[in-house]
Amino acid sequence: MKDLTEQQYLLSKDSIIQLVSAELEIPAEDIQMDDDLLLLGLDSVRLMTLVGIWQEQGSNVSFEGLAEEPNLQAWIEKILN
């Protein structure tokens, strides 16, 4: 897998989905907006990686905030707002 921290991503719905897909190594089209990402294999280390990327891009999202509701629908709302 590529080092995601070296790539530049703009904060958008599509980039969030693509990053999660890359971390899970699951095609984006196979992840539903309400799927529990922890049940799909996202662990705390991968979540911290994603949080770091999104914070570098200007989001105020936190590990705890995403862990409490681990699905794309909630994450997109939290990351983009």
TrEMBL record:
<dbReference type="InterPro" id="IPR009081">
    <property type="entry name" value="PP-bd_ACP"/>
</dbReference>
<feature type="domain" description="Carrier">
    <location>
        <begin position="7"/>
        <end position="81"/>
    </location>
</feature>
<dbReference type="Pfam" id="PF00550">
    <property type="entry name" value="PP-binding"/>
</dbReference>
<protein>
    <recommendedName>
        <fullName>Carrier domain-containing protein</fullName>
    </recommendedName>
</protein>
<dbReference type="InterPro" id="IPR036736">
    <property type="entry name" value="ACP-like_sf"/>
</dbReference>
